[in-house]
Amino acid sequence: MQLIVVREARDHSTDGEPGLLQYALSTAPLHTVVLDGLRHLWGCHAAGEPGERIGRPAPEELLWVLPGSWQAGLAAACGHMVFYGDSLSLDTRAWEGRSRSSWLAIVNGRFAAHVNHQLLGRLLETTPADCLAVTAASDLLACQERLRLTQDNQVVGYRRLYADSMSVTPIPVDWPHILFVRREAFGAALESGLLASFAAWVERCRAAGLRFQSAAIAGSAYDLESPEGMLSVCKAVLSCSSCRGSTVRPVPGRAAPPAAGQEISPQAHLVGPVVLGREVTVEAGAVVVGPAVLCDGCTVGRDAVIDSAIVGAGVSVEPNRSLGACVVTGAERRSASEPTEASTGWSPQGHVCPQDHRVFRMWPRFSYARCFKRIADVVAAVLVLILFAPVIPVIALAVKMSSPGPVFFRDKRQGLHGRPFHCVKFRTMRQGADKMQDKLRYVSEVDGPQFKMADDPRITTVGRFLRETYLDEIPQFFNVLCGQMSVVGPRPSPESENTLCPSWRDARLSVRPGITGLWQVRRTRDPQKDFQEWILYDTQYVRDFSFGLDLWICWRTFRRMVENFVSQF
User: Fold this and answer.
1) How far apart are CA 289 and CA 486, in angstroms?
2) Tens digits of per-residue pLDDT, 507-553?
3) Any idea what DSSP says for residue 372?
4) Under a CB-based contact definition with an 8 Å cutoff, are residues 348 and 331 in contact?
5) Which end of the chain is less congested by CB atoms within 10 angstroms, N or C?
6) Last residue of some domain: 225, 260, 292?
7) Residues 218 and 102 grouped into a single domain
8) Domain containing residue 212
9) Exposed, middle or buried, 27 (CB in 10 Å: 0-12/13-18/19+)?
10) Whether pLDDT at 55 is above 60
11) What distance in Å separates the CA atoms of residue 16 and residue 131, rounded to the nearest whole number?
12) Residue 470 lies in a domain
């Protein structure tokens, strides 16, 4: 169940004119575009039982709570509407019967907020709180650099986030973007309605014994009372196919016939997604570039240019006038010769729709990289594990007898697109050897973030044999079966190493890490060149990714394994 509460934004009203959100909801077809986008965004906040899919709610699950002063001129709204006067009182008993979910989502209707719904669903399943305040935080989105600063604002380090994240935050002073109230707490939390002050409402709920929690989740939020926010929501609806509703019909171009009441000159040019209202006139030579919305009764004069803008109802754009990335309201049917009052550019930061990160190299779905290599990896992993099945228990016994500690060593590494996983190998070092590495780093024989030294005292006798013959990496074929690794690919490395190499980490994380790879078979081990070769060969592998290259690497690896095995005797 979702309750969309809109408070009147008096700070955005001037000379008695309505605020931008009120104007948008009362103006056709702008209200259709805005509501379609908000249904998509707010639909990601519907949550039910644990494990239930979070998606767009049914219309009967939406309830708009709007200021009473908006009722007269409101054009339409999705779901049901109630209006309030001086106090916001609510009938919670009606909701308890209508709601099918475990939580009531109270959305701050002034903002178009979107958060990562998977993180949100996980939080709702695990939180012990009765009321959960959620804020959309753009700095928690994936592919962000988080700086570590001293008290003097000196940079001491940074961290790259490869996945959306969330964090616990203090209870906010003002109303959050989304407030969740557990079904069992409806009566105690909402019986007397919502107060104007969020802090006062929190104190009242705490006095009733309700538990509160606040969290920031990766996402974006736009103020719908600002031109920037309104433009961004419209742009998302018209540009993102996943946001378009059945009521939004972007005009593909000048060849589209005008609807009844519309006068579109054959010499006018409509390019991209454009939504036209009733009785819209576009004169000869005019150019309208989408995403754009032309509301009811507006006129675009001869040779005028509308570029990614919203033209309000009754507005007349003068001939030869250019409007770019602006909102022009027409409450008084004024001319758009000076549309600076609500003009703005598209916001360069943040995204209304879930982000589609393009920092990694991508391949077609049925290409070798995304489909057939995975099949080959599974077949190869099964064959190797069957072949070495009699040997694995012998190796495990030898490792156990050589030194105290577990048979397997598990280390956290970053896989495809930075997803963490535990890389498994036969243990070749004494227990606790990883904690001694920093003390021995001054004798490391390779440059860069790696560590290697001849006659490493941490390696056991059995471990040295396993390393020279590559038998210690047999358990990694279980990682291959799980889809965490590939037979061939860049060396699996931890986040600490990838963070130190910002110029090439996105390339090497575009594919699954491999048990063997181009760097392993071509490295020269020359002094002060190992790190450079690592960068060169990992990025070269991603650039030249092919079935033939994988076969060549596998052949070279097999030859080296045989040569090293023979050299041990």
Assistant:
1) 46
2) 888 999 999 999 989 888 777 777 788 888 998 999 999 999 999 99
3) I
4) no
5) C
6) 225
7) yes
8) 2-225
9) buried
10) no
11) 37
12) yes
| Residue 419, both tokens | 């997803």
In a domain, 56, yes or no: yes
Q: Are residues 488 and 526 in the same domain?
A: yes
Tokens of 10: 């008096």
Do residues 423 and 541 share a domain?
A: yes
**Are 276 and 377 contained in the same domain?**
no
Number of domains in the chain: 3
User: DSSP state, 172?
Assistant: P
Pairwise CA distance, residues 202 & 22, whole Å: 28
pLDDT digits (tens, 9 = 90+) for 450-464: 666 667 778 888 988
Helix, strand counts (H, E) of the chain: 17, 27
Q: What is the pLDDT of residue 33?
A: 85
d(CA 521, CA 401): 32
| Torsion angle (degrees, nearest 10) of CA 159, 164, 168, 170 | 90
Together in a domain, 260 and 211 = no
> Tokens representing 504?
């090439």
Contacts of 153 (CB under 8 A, 6+ apart): none
Whether the per-residue pLDDT at 12 is higher than 50: the answer is: no
Per residue in 399-446, pLDDT (tens digit) is 999 888 899 999 999 999 888 999 999 998 887 766 666 666 656 656
Same domain, 32 and 100: yes
Domain boundary among 168, 193, 225: 225
**How high does pLDDT run on average in the chain?**
79
pLDDT at 147 over 80: no
Q: For the chain, how big is the Rg over CA atoms in Å?
A: 30
Contact status, residue 103 vs residue 180, Cβ threshold 8 Å: yes
Structure tokens at 262: 């519309």
Helices (H), ranges, 321-372: none
∠ Cα 145 150 155 (to 5°): 45
- In 415-548, where do the E strands start and end? 420-426, 486-488, 514-516
Is there a domain that residue 213 lies in? Answer: yes
Are 10 and 113 a contacting pair, CB within 8 Å?
A: no
pLDDT digits (tens, 9 = 90+) for 157-215: 777 777 788 999 999 988 899 999 888 887 788 777 777 788 888 898 898 899 999 99
In a domain, 352, yes or no: no
**Residue 349 pLDDT > 50, yes or no?**
no
Asked whether residue 440 falls in the same domain as residue 318, the answer is no
CA distance 445 to 455: 11
Classify residue 375 as exposed, middle or buried by CB count within 10 Å of its CB (0-12, 13-18, 19+).
Answer: exposed
Ramachandran category for residue 490: left, alpha or beta (phi over 0 → left; psi -120 to 50 → alpha) = beta
pTM of the model: 0.68
Residue 86 buriedness (CB in 10 A; 0-12 / 13-18 / 19+): exposed
Confidence of residue 109 (pLDDT cuts 50, 70, 90): confident
Residues 187, 320 within the same domain: no
Q: What mean pLDDT comes out for the span 12-17? A: 53
